[in-house]
Amino acid sequence: MLALITRRLLTAIPTLLVIILASFFLMRLAPGGPFDGERPLDPETQAALQQAYGLDRPLWEQAWLYLSRLVQGDFGPSLVYRDFTVSELIAQGLPISLALGGLAIGLALLIGVTAGLFSAVRAGRGADKTIMMLATIATALPTFVTGPALALFFGLWLGLLPVSGTGHGGTWLILPVVALALPVSGAIAKLTRAGLASVLKQDHIRSARARGLPEVKILLKHGLRPSLVPVASYLGPAAAGLLTGAVVVETVFGLPGLGRYFVQGALNRDYPLVLGVVTLYAALIILFNLFADLIYGWLDPRMREE
Question: Which terminal CB of the chain, N or C, has fewer other CB atoms within 10 Å?
């Protein structure tokens, strides 16, 4: 397991470097700039701003300076939010995004594993087909559809839950977390059902039933763990999907998370802000993939020897 962690960490560094450099040059190649607006600045002012932020230097030099600051934990100043550094903006938005993502993956696992377990036990019956149909629908619907629909129904029509902002205690989390969790829960349900249905046909399950073990014990002790191997391999991409999906959900529900800063930074060509959020997203995705590999290794001991 230690060798697995070491290999993943060694590949994470060059992967993160490639992502940072690719994002850096793609942002610079995009038309427009951070100081362009409806009322263009006079050439002298724009030249002074370019020089103050180092944007008048060659691209390779700008990239080197950015990497040098990044190694020291400095994401640089925001070009649009002039009173804040990128690190300060990330510190404001990261807790909200992590709360949304963490609660969403927890809810998705709870719903998905429970639904998949219930469906596998009743394989081929009406309940199985109904659950799988609902799981397919949940997986197919994107968050930019489910988010507004939930806000419209539970917020505006029924008036049960807030649809914008972070007030009202903790109830503001319910709708965005559900919107994020639904597609992932559908995929987890289908993976759990397929894995458990396959495991229940194996010889060791037949032997356990022949010994007269209770069905609940057979499912939870002998069947569930190996059936969750596909779910563990899916957790890394699922976490990445939740991070990118949170950009849409935070915008829909007006939440001051990283998604809002990312969208505003991209629209305003705030290079340091976009790069800071992309770097953080990439690091989190790599970290989540490492956690998924560790869970995979715990569920399947053969993985530890690879």
Answer: C
Global pTM value: 0.78
Residue 282 to residue 288: CA distance in whole angstroms: 10
Distance (Å) of CA 124 to CA 42, 128, 193: 71, 6, 11
Written as tens digits, the pLDDT of the chain (306 aa) is: 667 677 777 888 888 889 888 988 887 777 766 766 656 666 777 777 777 777 778 888 888 888 888 888 888 888 878 788 888 988 888 888 888 888 998 999 999 999 988 888 887 788 889 999 999 999 888 888 888 999 999 988 988 888 887 776 778 889 999 999 998 999 999 998 888 877 777 776 777 777 777 777 777 776 777 777 778 778 877 877 777 667 888 888 888 888 878 888 888 888 888 888 888 888 888 887 777 777 766 666 555 554
Is 3.60.10.10 the CATH number for 95-255?
Answer: no
Taking a C-beta distance cutoff of 8 angstroms, is the pair 272, 78 a contact?
Answer: yes
- Can you give the residue ranges of every domain in the chain? 95-255
